[in-house]
Amino acid sequence: MINTCFRIYQKYEFLNINHALGISCCTTGSKHLIFQYASFDKSVLSNKLSLKFIAMKVHLRKRELSQKESGKPRYSLYLDIYYSKLKRVREFLGIYIDPKEDKTFRQEKLGIAENIKAKRTLELLNEEYGFPSKEKQKQNFVEYFEHQMNRRTGQTKVPWSNAYKYLVQYTKGSVLFANIDKTWLEGFQTLLLNSLSPSSASLYFSKVKCALRESIKDRILISNPADQIDPIKSKQKEREFLTVDELKKIIDTPCRNDQVKKAFLFSCFTGLRYGDIVALKWSQIKEINFNGNGKSYAVQLTQSKTGKALHIPLNNTALKLIEDRPEIDRLVFQLNMKHRSMQRILQSLLDSAEISKKITFHCARHTYAVLLLANGANLMTVKELLGHRDIKSTQIYAKVVDESKVSAVSNLPTI
Q1: Domain ranges in the chain?
Q2: Topology, domain 244-409
Q3: Which among 80, 82, 99 is positioned nearest to 90, based on CA atoms?
Q4: pTM of the model
């Protein structure tokens, strides 16, 4: 396959040619046309050439201004821009032609207007085919980041909000996309590292990188300047989890809020995140039939964090933690409190159960993964049950299980 470009008529003067995209912009008089030429095989070059016209015209026009005195009138120059879908935009250039002015000066003004006309044509061409325009790059990145932040909800929004605070501190609330480069990003990294732990700095910087990636989709940037920056190296956190004996202790220990206890244990046996547990409804617990071996139940939902669909079979322990299905659809767990309040109740439960590990609600998810791997599940199965996008996230738990095995073997008695 080859790409080719040639003059349609000799009178066309090409302003810009992009062989990689198959696009050309040409002009004749006051009319601009954009040609998109197709890829085709050499064998059919002679008789099968497909040429697509994208109707776009840019006219330089003048409007007569009212004259208080007799004599030749003054003119205001403007652009008439016609798009493919019969859309018309009129742009006044703020350039005025006065017959009383020197001829050379008037020609200079016309030359400036022609240059603006050519620039607008190429900007429209770039926008049509995904190239960012300079006008878009004059947007405030801090406002764009805030917009991306507000699209998030629940716990997912928390690191975005924290990153936003440091972004405002670094920029005083304003920085243009055009000014974001490697040096600017390295300066922001330095601010984060001077203020936070490496792991938190890495997390918040990743949100800035994510916003820049989104700006590429919105045709503001053509590439992500953060890709030129070395990632912040943070020490891998030890993933705390509960053993079977520790889970039994929690089950046997009274709790001042039974809903928190049941929700935490349910997460230990399903791997659901706190945000998904809070929003879990009875309609998302489905009755299923596995290979004709009788009825069972599974949680079917879309993860709030990743948007990935999950199908998690429920074992008998998980089923005992939930009440009988009500007649009307409602939340499975009644957790009408803030995350911090829930964590205080959970910590009180752990203290009563004499568990000294630093356990958060999210550690229930770690517990589920370790229990699965320790009981023979393969990595791909665990990846799907947890809803991980990347197998690397699941491999961390395999390492934890391997370390537990080494510890168990080391504790064997010496004979």
Answers
A1: 13-128, 137-228, 244-409
A2: hpI Integrase; Chain A (1.10.443)
A3: 80
A4: 0.56
